[in-house]
TrEMBL record:
Phylogenetic placement of the source organism: unclassified sequences, metagenomes, ecological metagenomes
Entry keywords, A to Z: Membrane, Transmembrane, Transmembrane helix
Transmembrane segments: 29-52, 58-75, 87-111, 131-148
Protein name as annotated: Uncharacterized protein
Length: 164
């Protein structure tokens, strides 16, 4: 392959990628409605097999219904917001820190405390619970700080998807 063919293939990939996101933007409301239906079915299924109680099921169903308009508004108006930098800081530091901190907490807590071979398995349950809670707070704080440093390095610029 020569250089022109490679460039042409890459341009076609970029055009296909842009058309995919444009089609997805047109169907945002439909995606939100489908996610509501799936979430509601999941909550009620968890209720019927006995994992969660009725009050929690009703609460999650109503909460799921309230989130759809918020997500639809956020997705459609995010690129036009005057406070885009603040929103990016909150989402990146708060959401990213909680997400990555939760993942590392789950892995670390399992390997150190709850697994049968864990070194802290012999501790009393109350002490293990306190250690798990402190581990969650510290790992989420560390992950939030790392996400803050990443955002600061990028100068809090939004993704190129939102700026086109």
């Amino acid at each position: 392959m020569n250089e022109k063919e490679i460039i042409k293939k890459e341009m076609n990939k970029e055009e296909n990628n842009k058309s995919f996101w444009k089609k997805l933007d047109d169907k945002t409301l439909l995606i939100n409605i489908i996610s509501f239906i799936i979430g509601t079915i999941l909550f009620w299924w968890l209720f019927f097999i006995g994992i969660i109680d009725l009050m929690r099921t009703i609460f999650l169903t109503i909460l799921n219904l309230l989130i759809i308009p918020l997500l639809y508004y956020f997705i459609n108006n995010f690129g036009k917001s005057k406070h885009q930098k603040i929103i990016i800081k909150i989402v990146l530091v708060g959401g990213g820190g909680f997400f990555f901190g939760g993942i590392t907490w789950f892995i670390t807590g399992y390997l150190l405390i709850t697994a049968p071979w864990a070194p802290l398995q012999a501790l009393p349950p109350v002490l293990r619970g306190r250690i798990l809670l402190l581990l969650l707070l510290t790992l989420c704080g560390i992950a939030a700080y790392i996400m803050y440093r990443i955002g600061k390095k990028r100068d809090w610029r939004p993704s190129s998807y939102y700026t086109d």
